[in-house]
Task: structure prediction
Amino acid sequence: MGARVLERFPAGSPRGSWPAEEYAARRRAEGEDAATVVMDLKSDSFLVLVPAEDEERDRARPGRR
Result:
């Protein structure tokens, strides 16, 4: 399963994950039902993700359909 990053927010923010959670909530209100927030430890940031569409995954893997 792949995911597409919509936005990144620094984890060191005084508000923590709130900006990412608020952004994801706005996206869900706009119809992006699967917008979720995850913590990326390697980049020390919160990521707002949505599942990758099948077409995007197929394009990412040449030769596979």
